[in-house]
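Hi support team,

I've been running sequence recovery on a batch of backbones for a student project. Most finish fine, but this one hangs at about 90% for roughly twenty minutes before it completes. I'm not sure whether the input is malformed or the queue is just slow. I've pasted the structure tokens below so you can try to reproduce it. Let me know if you need the job ID as well.

Thanks,
M.K.
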């Protein structure tokens, strides 16, 4: 379960990335996100280093999260990956 602090951070958009489904996975991107979202098929650069075409379908938001984007997003947000605390000791 996420702590209230983590939920608040994720909801506040105080970090420099957003999540965007594209090409079969949910990716994180530092590209500017328009207030109403990106048009379907917009090319975005991702935190994993690839470029994908955006998808806004309901199903797309349920796609698997890109593991490399997830790691980079956690770094940018300053939130350790689950299980990472064990590695620090």
């Amino acid at each position: 379960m996420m702590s209230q602090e983590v939920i608040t951070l994720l909801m506040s958009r105080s970090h420099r990335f957003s999540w965007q489904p594209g090409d079969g996975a949910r990716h994180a991107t530092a590209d500017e996100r328009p207030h109403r979202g990106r048009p379907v098929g917009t090319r975005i650069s991702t935190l994993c280093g690839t470029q994908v075409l955006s998808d806004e379908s309901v199903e797309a938001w349920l796609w698997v999260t890109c593991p490399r984007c997830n790691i980079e997003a956690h770094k940018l947000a300053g939130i350790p990956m689950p299980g990472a605390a064990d590695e620090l000791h």
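--
Follow-up from support: It reproduced on our side and the slowdown came from queue contention, not your input. Residues 6 and 53 are 29 Å apart (CA to CA). No action needed from you.
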